[in-house]
Amino acid sequence: MSDVAVLIAFIYALIAFSYSLGSLFQALPLPRPEWKAYGPMLMWDSTVSLFAISSISAVQLLMNWLSNSLNETFPGPFSSSTASFALIISQLALVDTTLILIVAGVSSTVLLEPVGEALSRMFGPAIFWATTAIILWTIIQIVISLFPRIWLWSYVLGVSFYALPFRLGRRLGAYIMTSSITLAVSLPILPSLAIQFEGLIGYEGAFRNLADLASQITTNPLAIPTMITSLPQVLAALVAGMIISLVIFPLAYLFALSLLARSAASLIGGSSPMSISLLGPSKQIARSLTD
């Protein structure tokens, strides 16, 4: 917290410097109107930066309200990101275990040993995607667990870039500010959304079919030749559902959050045309005030 306090003190000093510099530009008899136009712009930008750094408590209250509203949207045991993450990891681990169990059950029969080798090659992509999904969701869970501790620091860092004079870091600062708020609110509900999305595309049904097939293979090896014919269809449905719901969906969700953060950043000052017309005077507007 001491590092954040030092950074906040630096931002207040930077805001005071920008405002004083804007007053100086406005008071001096500068020969060119476009130079003098920097005065109102610097004063306005410093006022907006002061509001951004002074409203940390309001931002926290807004984030808590949004988080509670989203959690109420997903009631039950899946409202907890930890419980949802544990369920996702257990599903992926069961996929690996089931595939290995099928290969072991087929290979245990001497006559079907070549079939077991073919199945091990056929299951390679499924195991690869299951491992990829496990790694991806582990990274997501680490970020979810760490972000509540670092979001304030990232928000204040964004304000520090946002408060630089002459809008030198305005776009980067606005993007860091909006990204910290967007991720802190929206990222914890990603595991719950993924589980609900699984139900929509039928991933659970595909996994249940694979588990039933594995159970039949281990309990009745003599029926393996008749069950092998249905295995490619079951495996294809499972792999497709796993890739869509547990790999593509979280990546698409994160991409959508980045677009949302970028749009919010342009709204508060990260893009010249929209931000200047909405939040404050541009150099052209300021020039008209000084003429």
Describe the structure.
The structure is a single chain. The protein is mostly helical and 291 residues long. The chain has one domain (2-290). Helices cover 85% and strands 0% of the residues. The protein is built from 14 helices and no strands. α1 (2-27) runs antiparallel to α3 (38-54). It is elongated. It starts with a helix and ends with a helix. 30% of the residues are buried. The model is unreliable at 272-287 (pLDDT under 50).
Could you say how many structural domains there are in total?
A: 1
Determine the mean pLDDT: 79
How much β-strand is present in the residues?
under 5%
Q: N-to-C SSE series?
A: HHHHHHHHHHHHHH
Give a topology summary.
Blueprint: H1 2-27, H2 33-36, H3 38-54, H4 56-73, H5 81-107, H6 113-122, H7 124-162, H8 170-186, H9 190-201, H10 203-219, H11 224-228, H12 231-270, H13 272-279, H14 283-290
Short characterization:
It is built from 14 helices and no strands. The protein has helices at residues 2-27, 33-36, 38-54, 56-73, 81-107, 113-122, 124-162, 170-186, 190-201, 203-219, 224-228, 231-270, 272-279, 283-290.
Features of the shown structure:
291 residues; 14 helices; mainly alpha
